Structure prediction request, 201 residues.
Amino acid sequence: MTLSLSLLCVFAALLELDTTYAFQTLVSRPIIAGPLIGWLTGDVAAGVQIGIFAELLFSDISPLGGIVPPSGVVATAVPLALYSLGIELYFGFFAGVISAVLYSFFDMLLRKTRFQWLVFLEKRIGRKPQDITRIVAATLLLSFLMSFLFISAAVWGSSRLIFALYPYLPPKAHFAFDLAYAAVPWIGLAALIPAFRLKTR
Prediction:
């Protein structure tokens, strides 16, 4: 992986921290993360497009109860990284969506592991309250590293797979993916209509 792609993955992992673990300034929302990552890759327009599409696609999924929604950062970082490698957005976007869904399962596993670790840390903080800053910093660093490794693996794996399949893809496959990509905002808008419908009862 090149230095520029590694830096992109570092930036995306930092944005992922904003989702739940730190800051929570909403820069991890796809509509904001997309243009920021697009700026890093040198194509803000592609970042805006991917950000809007991902925002619309995932806008109907709320993190309620035990639901961990797909990562908006992963859904924008992966396709934009692939696009910088020369892969069309309509292939990269769906690779990003799959990666974002897989990340939600990965994050769920991390949360379960972290909960067991926090039970141990709570006892340690009770004995040594002055260690709390170091423990919080270590927890955030670990979360950052896990996100970085996942995003890097998703970019590397997706690019290898798509480049391997390229010679065997007929023009109809390109047309089908392009058409499906163009339909994404309409699917997202259709999901939002009931949320904005006025209650008549």
Notes: Residues 3-196 form one domain. Residues 8 and 40 are 7 Å apart (CA to CA).
